[in-house]
Amino acid sequence: MKIQTTKDEAKTFQRYLKSMPKVILSVTISTFSCYRNGIGTIKGYCYQHGIGTTKDKKKAFQWYLKSAEGGNHMGQRNLGCCYQQGIGTIKDEEKAFQWYLRIILDIVINKELEQQKMKRKHFSGT
């Protein structure tokens, strides 16, 4: 048995926008947490590519910025691409490089912290 549905990106995008506040309130997630976990990146992607909404590169840039500032690596990467290619902002390769570098440093620091935790756990016997 197959269920017939039609693809409606605009409706999906609008439902996504409407459901976000309810989801955030119901699980008491802070705005920072949403950006950290990529909500801004998803919205930025939809605006950049016109998925379910009108293409708006400036809005895409703003959502990527919020996500990047929240610490989301994909948001940081997308923001770097915006600066590198001039998507929704003035082309600025220095800023692009800074965002790309931020991702690398964060990954290296997190890896180092994980290794330190493992060493402490090993030596403490737990």
TrEMBL record:
Record-linked Pfam families: Sel1
InterPro entries listed in its UniProt record: Mitotic_Regulator, Sel1-like, TPR-like_helical_dom_sf
Domain of life: Eukaryota
Gene3D superfamilies the UniProt entry points to: Tetratricopeptide repeat domain
Protein name per the record: Uncharacterized protein
Species this protein is from: Diversispora epigaea
